[in-house]
Structures are given as C-alpha cells and as structure tokens.
Amino acid sequence: MSTVAIYLLTGGLLFVIGLHGLIVRRSLLRKILALNIMDSGVFMVLLSLAARSDPPDPVPQAMVLTGIVVAVSATALALVLLVIAPSRYTDEHDPNA
Amino acid sequence: MTFGGVLLLLILLSSLVPGVLIFFVAEQRRRLRTVLNMSGAVIKLLLVVVLLEGVREGLFFQLSFNVLPGLAFVLHADALSILFIALSAVLWLVTTIYAIGYLENSPNRSRFFGFFSLCVFTTTGIALAGNLFTFLIFYELLTLATYPLVVHRGTAPSLRAGRQYLIYTLGGGVALLIGVVGLNLLAGSQPFTPGGYLGVLAGQHDTELKILFVLMILGFGVKSALVPLHGWLPQAMVAPAPVSALLHAVAVVKAGAFGIVRLVQDVFGTGLLIYLDLLLVVLLLASVTIVYGSLRALMQTDIKRRLAFSTVSQVSYITLGVTLAGPIGFIGGLAHLVHQGLMKITLFFCAGNFAETLGVHRIDQLNGIGRRMPWTMAAFTVGALGMIGLPPMAGFISKWYLAQGALEVGQQWVIGVLILSSLLNMMYFLPVLYRAWFKPPMEQWPQERLKTRWETHLSLLLPPLFTALLALLAGLLAGMSTSPLAWAELITLRNYAL
Amino acid sequence: MKTIVNLVSVVVLLWLAVLAWALWHIPLTDSGLQTLALAELPNSGVEHAVTAVLLNYRAYDTLLEVVVLLAAVLGARAAGWPVALPLNADRGPLLPGVASVLLPLLLLSAVYLLWLGKHEAGGSFQSGALLGAAGILALLSAQPGDWPVRAWTVRVGLVIGFSIFLLVGVLVIPFSGTFLAYPFGTATELILLIEIVLAFSIGLALLLLFAGQGSVIDPP
Amino acid sequence: MDLSLHPHWAVWCIVVPLLASGLAVLVPRWGKTVGVVGALLTLLAVGGATLHLLAHGPQRIEIGGWGAPLGIQLQLTGPALMMLWMTALVSVPITLYACDYFVTRSQQLRFWPLWLLLWATMNMLYLSADLFNLYITLELISLVAVVLVALAGPKAIRAAIRYLLMNLLGSLCFLLAVALMYGAYGMLDIKMLAEQVEATPLTGLALALMSIGLLLKSALFPLHIWLPPAHAGAPAPVSAVLSALVVKASFYLMLLLWLTLYSSLVTHGLTTLIGVLGIGAILWGSVQALRAARLKQLVAYSTVAQLGYIGLAITLIDVAAWQPVLTFMIAHACAKGAMFLAAGNFQRAAGHDRMALISTALRALPVSVFAFALAGVSLIGLPPSGGFLAKWLLLSAALDSGRWLIALALVGSGLLTALYIFRVLERAMRPGANLQPVGRVSPLMEWSAFGLGLLAILLGFAGVGITQIVAEWPV
Description:
The complex is a heterotetramer of chains A (97), B (498), C (220) and D (475).
Chain A: H1 3-24, H2 28-50, H3 58-84
Chain B: H1 3-23, H2 30-56, E1 62-68, E2 71-76, H3 79-102, H4 109-128, H5 132-150, H6 156-187, H7 206-223, H8 232-235, H9 241-268, H10 270-275, H11 279-298, H12 303-323, H13 327-358, H14 369-372, H15 374-388, H16 394-409, H17 412-438, H18 458-476, H19 484-496
Antiparallel strand pairs in B: 1-2
Chain C: H1 2-24, H2 34-40, H3 49-57, H4 59-79, H5 94-116, H6 124-141, H7 151-171, H8 173-176, H9 187-211, H10 214-217
C-alpha cells in the first residue's frame, strides 16, 4: 500500500463525503461547501496520479491548477447568487438543514 | 424540370400562393380577398384543363427530387389523379363563391380563406402524389389544413368536434406512417405503378404485408369514414356550411377513398390482395359501412347530420367498386367518386341555404319550404334523386356499373347490398322531399332574414343550381367523351391494359 | 425524510466501495506524459514543467480558464452584484496601519511570484490571487469615497487578460501556421507578456467578485 | 508566412464570438450592434468551415503546434459541423429577437457579452477533441447559462442556484472520470484514447461517471428536476437557447464519447436503460405539459419530453448511428427555439402567461401563433417538417431491427406531443374580447420566431445534405 494508493483512496473518500453532503443537506450554503469538498477530493486524486513518477508528471498538476480556478469561479458565482437570493428562499436560519 | 414538372408546380402554387397571401389581407379588405380567391380558383381550373388534355394525349408529367438518399418526393399526373383534381378544381371554384356569400359579415374571414386555399393545395397534392411517401406528406398536411376550418367558429361544440377530429385523424396518420415506413423497408420507395409493385414479395413477407395493409387501411379508413372510424364526420357538421360542403363531401373523405384506390390498385395490386385474402375483408367492411351509414342517416333529425351519415355510406361505394377487383366495378367506383361529389355538395349547399336564410336546421322544419325557396328545393330534389339512383341520374349509372362489376366478379350478394342501400336512401330522402313540396309550411320560419328579390343571395343560390345541373348532365350525357364515366373508363383501360 | 437520508447514505457508501475498488486498480507505474513533457521543455520557452504545460502545451485550457473567471464576474454583474461594501464606513485606526505595512509587501511578493513562474512553481494565477487580496485590503482600509479609477479602465482591466491572450494566439497564426503556436524563439517573451496581463486581470476579477458594484464597472 | 484563412475556419468559429463578447464587455453601449455583427460573422465562419469540410474532409487542428498526446486537438467532423450549424441556425434569430426583447439599458448591457460567450463556448465544445478541455467547456456553458437564467430577476435566482448546483455536480463527475481515464491510459486526446481503450472495470466506471455527469447536465428524466423552473423562469430568448441548444451539447458529447471512446463498452443493456429513461421522460414530460398552468412551463416540460425522445433515439445508435439523432436534434432545436420565442411574445403582450387567460394574447399575435404552430408540427413529427424526417429515420431503424417497443414509443410520443400542442393552438381559436397590450411586441420579435419555426419545417427537405455530411465523415 504505497503512499500514492493512500492518497488516491482518500481522494475518492473526500469525493464521496462531499457527494453525501450535497444530496442530504438542504441548506444551499452547505451544498456549496459539499461541492468544494468534492473538488478537493478530485484534485487529490489527480495529484496522486502526478506523484506516481519521480519528477512528478506536470500535466495533472496543470489540470489541478486549472481545476482550482474553475472551482473558485463556480463557488464565487454560487455564493453571489446565494447572497442576492431573497432570504426567504435560502433556509439559512435552520442550522441542521 | 420539364415543362410537365413546371405545370404541376404551377397547379400546386395556384392554390398555395393565394392562400398564403390571404392570411395577410386585412379583415375588412373584402374585395382584395375575393379577387385573390377567384383568380386562384380560375387559374387553377385553366391549368387543370391543360393538364387534362396533356394526360389524355399520354404526355409525361413528372417532378421529383430526393428528400433522403433513396427516398424521393415525386409529383406525377396520371389519369386517376386528373379525375380527382378536376373534381376538386371545379368544386373549389363553386364553393369559394358560395363561401364568400355565406360568410358575408362573420369574423376571421382572412384566416378562413387562407386555410381554405391551403386545404385545396393539399388535396391537389394528394391527387398528384407519385409515391406513397409524397402521398403521406400531403395526407397529413390535410389534417393540419382542415382542423382550423372545423373549429372556425371557436364555440365549445366546434372545439370539441375539432378535438375528436384530431384524435381520429392523427391516430390514423400514425397507422399510415408505420405502414408506409414498413413498405419502404420491404420494397423501397417505388412510384405508383398500375397493377401494384408488391406482387414480387408475394412469397416471402406475407405476414408483414398483411399487417402493413391492415395498418394502411386503418389510416385511410379514418378519412374515408369506414364504419368503426367514421365517428368524427357527423361531429364535424358543426363547421360552417362551405366547410362541410367542400371538405366533408369532397376533399377529406375523397382523399381517404382516393388513398384506398391508390393502395389497392397501384401499390398492392388486386392479385396480391386476393392471394393474401384481404380483399374480401375490405369488401365486407365497405358493404357494412354502406348499410350502417344509411341506417344511421334514417334516425337523424338534423339535416346536416343526416347528410353526413349519407356521405359515410356513399363514400364506401368507391371502396366497394375498387375492392370488387374487376374492371367494370372499378369504373363504377371511380365514376361514383365524381358523381357523389357533385350530388352531395349540392345537398350541403341547399342545407346551408335553408339554415342561412330561414334558420331551418331540423327536418321537421322543412314543411312547405318548396313554396318559399323553390329553386334551392329543386336543386335539393335533383341531388336527392341522384343519391337514390333514379335511372337518368348520375347515381344510377355508378350503381349500375357497380352491380355489373359485382356480377362480373361473381359476388352476387353485393347487388343485394346495393338494392338495400338504395331502399334506405329512398326511406331517408323521399319523406324530406314529400314534406318540402306537399306539406303546408309552418306559420313562421325560425329566423327569416331580409327578403331579397330572389329567394336568397345570388351567391348562395347559384352554386347549388350549377352543381345540380352538373350532376344531371353527368348522368344524362354519360356517354359523351368528356363525362366522368368516360374518364373512368379511360383510367381503367390504362390501368388494366386491356 | 429519515428513510431517504438512510437510503442515500447506503447508495453513497456503495458508490464509495466501487470508487475505492476502481482507484485501487489504477496502475501505479507512471504511464503519464511527463517523459514527453520534460523532453519538450527546452523549446517550450520556460524551465518549469507545469508553467510549460499551462502556457504552452495546453495554453488553450488556460485561455478558457480565464474566460471562466470572466464569466463569473459577468455573472455577478448580471445577477445584480452581491450586497455592496459600505465604502463610507469609518475604518478605525488598526486596519489602515496594517494595510500601510502589508500592501507593499503583498505587491512585491506578487511580482516576485510572477517572475518566479519561469523556472519555479509560480505564475500568473498565484500572483493574481495575491493582487486580488491586496486590492481587497486596500479597499477595506481606504478612506471613504469612490474607487480611484473610472469604470472604463476597470472594464479594460477585466477584459485585457483574455483578449491579449486570444489576440496573441490569433496573430501568431501567419507566423507559425496554427492557433496559439508561439513562433520559434519568441515563446519566452510572449509567455511573459501573457503572464503579466493575466495576473492583472485575475487580480481585478477576484476583487470585483468580492467587492464589485454597479457604479464601479457600468458606464454612467 | 502563410496568410490563407481557409485551414483555420474551425478556429474562427471560436475566436469571432469570443472577441465579440470581449468587445461587448468593453463598450456596453455598442452591445446590440456587436451582438448582431458577431452573430453574422460567426454564421460566416460556420459557412467557411462547411466549405472546408466539403473540400478537404475532416480536419484535426493541433492547437499550439504540439502533437496529440501533449497538446490539445480541435476536430472538425460531420456531426461536429452539424451541431455548429444547429447552434448558428438557432442563435441568429434569437439574437435578432433579443435586440427588441430587452428594453432596459441595464438588461441590454448584461445580456450581450454573456450571450456571445455562450455561443462561443458551445462552438468550443463541439470542436474540442480533448477530455479535460471538454470539462472546462462544459463548466463554462453551465456558468454562463445559469447567469442568463438569473437575468430574469430575483424570482429566477433560486431556480438558477439549483440549476448551478446540479450542473456543478455533473461537471465534477465528469472531471473524476477524466482523472480515472488519465490514470489508466495516461493521455487525454479522444482519438488516441479510442485506440488504447479496452473493456477494463476502471474504464467501465469512468464511462458510468461520465454518462451520469452528462445526463445530469442534459436533464434526462429522473435527473430533470432543475430544468422546468429554470427554463420557465428565464427570459424568453434565454429559455429558448437553454432548451434548444444547451441541454443538447451534453447529449451530443455523451453520444460522441459512446461512439468513439467507449464503443466496445456500450452494451445493449446500457442503451436500453437510456431508452427506458427516455420513455419515462416522454410520459412524465407530456403529462406535466398537459397539466401545466402556465405556457412557459408547458414548453419547458415539452423539452423534458423531447429529451426523452433523444434517449429513445440513442437506443438505435448501434443500428443507425449518428444521422437520425442529429436530424432530430437540429429539428427540435429550431422548433423549441421558435416555441419559446412565441411564448415570450404572448407573455410580453399579455403581461402573464397563464394558460387560462392566454387566448386573448394568442388572438392578438397571429404571426406568433403561426410560429408556435409550425414549431408544434415539427415537434409532433408531422410532414413535411424536420421532426418528421427524424421520426421517419428512427422508425425505419426501429422497424428494421425489429424493436417494436421503441417504434411504438416513437409514434406514441408524437401523439402525446400533439395533445399539449393543440391544447395551446385550440385557445387561439376561441372568440373573445381584444387584448389591451401590456408590453410592446415588435414585428422583429414576431418574425424572428416565425423564421425559426419555418426553419424547422424547411429542414424536412434538407435530409440529403445532412446525410451526405454525417454519413461520409462520422468521426
């Protein structure tokens, strides 16, 4: 069980945890958080793929960089929409939603 | 694009272009709309006469282009299509005049006449279709063109009638689509050839051919009002009189009957159908429809519904003639296609006149109408006697040939059906004539409109008289070379290559 | 409601098992592109492999990435901007003090990161992030009053990043024959130009996403 | 120095709308003119690409000059060109419609850059041949589409958020699948991957993840929950482009990947599953459309149903491959676009789109009713429309391969569609009082809807062209 396999599995685990949170949680903010966890999960999988060779493979690293910027833009847009949405729509007040 | 192709295109455009233009004519521009209508009708009539002469000499008229590799959109004029085009061209001209008078000050006339012309465009397309694919395109377009006319008034009953009309026709369209696609898979898209082009498949695909034939008969049966599929026709009588006159006596029902003629004669071929023993089934179905239609007509109190059921039974004469699978029966069926058109449109015109001028809708209100509107009633009488099949009339000739055809093919029981239906015709037409001529009129007509110099507006009076005259001539001068009967013989001559 | 949650958890757990089993099967040998990427490094114009991939081998991806960021800003504008930052609130003494120390440091390290990208980990995105942070800090600690710059320049700043990148990609076609292929020998300079412009645009975009307002970007 | 333009038409299809979008951001006052000029230039670029394809056959452009495994490739094939044409044919009328639809300056200012960006991104997706690049284009389409939905104001924002979250989930599944494929085969170019792929369980999972991601984005039934509120809530030109084009991009991508990358893995079972989902979508969409209380809801549910129809068409890809699905997609795009534009006209004129009181608006706008009717004819699949041509091809394929249930479903869905189409058209026939117009519907808005509807009909005669292009250069 080399370290690469461990990171691969944790990446998958993060993805699944995020997926569960996204589906189960009703509050939109928590869904956005869940999406970010899934993002980091996939990026961990990609980075562990890069780490398989000694000079780490630059292509997955570039993919992660690009993925991060795309994830940031998507999350920023989601948060902007969340802030603008009339509050009676987003059920923030309910902590365990 | 030969000259022939251009002519076919011109004939189609002569009803499409005015139709599209009329949609944009403002509602109150009455004269412009009338000019467009009449010019379209007259040009079409002239072109049809030219086409008629061309086909008589045996010239070749064809226009085709590929919609898909191996699937062509073909327009082709043969003797059979001329019969149907001539009928629709003449009757469209007459009905346009009648409709202009009938819808004098009602709303949405531009929309009405737009769809009216589109409807005739599709009927012409059906007549000119060169293969099943093209036939299907125009056949489905006919539903779209006629639906707005059926629901023209927009009242709740007409919308309900429209809904029912759609359910029947779209359902039939689906059956037809599957049939045409199936045949295209089995035999490729071949043009209509007299005697049918499926004979070669007799051995291998019997079951598929049977299923496809049944599906296509269902598709055509809806519009030609074969018994189980006729429900929409009496409902559609809610439409204005010109619609029921042209559409439900000529355009739509004839399209269905014409489809059956094409299917039996030019696609499957009677030989193959006898081999698949399907011909007898359709023959029985037609006979049942004839008797059933007449019986239901007997029980109707409303004039137009009685005429509607009479149409249901009369159209099946054509199917009867075709499925007798003999040349003489075929002549009788084709001749009846024209004769029935002329007679039935006269009856609907007269019914429209009674309703429009005196507000008479039911049969018991017809007492003594002969005195009040003698000319209209005379036309009605000519039409009614023709339907019954009195000797000098056109109706008699087609029934005579049908009977001869039945004898020729050895189906004696068909004569019984003919006699029974003639009797029934008498039972639902003669009392009407007796009531109209010999009974004293009611003291006050339901809604008597203004008293014009003639019994009603001229544009309402002349069309029925003209068509009644045509029906009379078609019967008396059947021997002449230009009569519908002679043309039917020409078709049969070419079809059976005797 | 409870049952649905349990059902979802079961399905998700099942999914985890499948995913883990599949990840287990990924070959641990490096069948990746790194040998090819490292071999091509000399004529990619930069020494650092990731920057080479980002701005040369897969430059088209980076171009799209900047467009995504621009789309997010346009989106924020179209949705009506989040709640506006109170530009005229009083700031208290602490923030301006810290800002006067931090701002120069941030700008310096942003420029250093930008330059570093040529041969070490760094580049336009990292320095863009720093620039954005510096912008926000400046905004929060600035004296009340409107933005120092006119709306037009903000729009130019926003668009310049991806436009220059795109124009470079198009203008090189006559010289190198294909879109975004830097002609021989000019790769380093072009990449540097693109990096600088990108860093500026990304910083501005991040700033607008955080503190954007109608008055800042829309014409009067 | 080689100044000839012709080998790069595919690049122009991407660059022109992108530059136009940048210009629209830069100078908002020129938004409308930049939009129209950009639209026409892009149409020109697609025309150029067609000529190039006809002359030289499929083309693979190596962006950046690097070879396949390292660099990114653009591919101009028959199906890709058909989708470019679909996007162009629907976008030009919508652009003209939007000129008069957005009245307030602030709406104009926000709409144009995003609209051109969306068009550019769709062209990018159809031309791209690299898995990771496809991920970014999918993400970009979702972001821009969500924002365009949010243009309709606060009431559409909640639908926009749901739309965004579902699409982000889809993109993430797609990204994870790309990571797995990279892990297994070490390359991202579709054509090279297609030669290496074998049916290992890892590839199977990647296929499943990619398919789920793309089905989420193309809202095939049970994953369609976000579509009706988003499409009904959005402004008319936006809901037209969402229903007509955006949902199809992911469907096209799934088909592309299934036919090229995973052709060995796509078992009959998988396609029948999609077929069953398709039938479910048709039933569910049609029933909801019949019960819809508002016109735009009806049209949105009709989209759900018609996407199910595409699902049905997918079951026949092993028999009839590209052509029927593409023909249907293009015909549906024109028809659905025309329908939403017409619905927008009725809503603009009457101030509401409640089905109960819509007949006054229908009577007041005959040209829009005609546009709606033409679109309806194509959706039902009545001749001579493009929809009929697609139905003919699909029915032939279904009957030829003896799949009766699929044939029955194809035909039945046409009848179901007819029910809710004529539910609207029937209301146009009802007599009644005239309409006091609440909003102004310019002739340009009506005629662009009519033009799009007519396009859907004229496609019925374009079968030969589509067949020639698609059949000769499938991949």
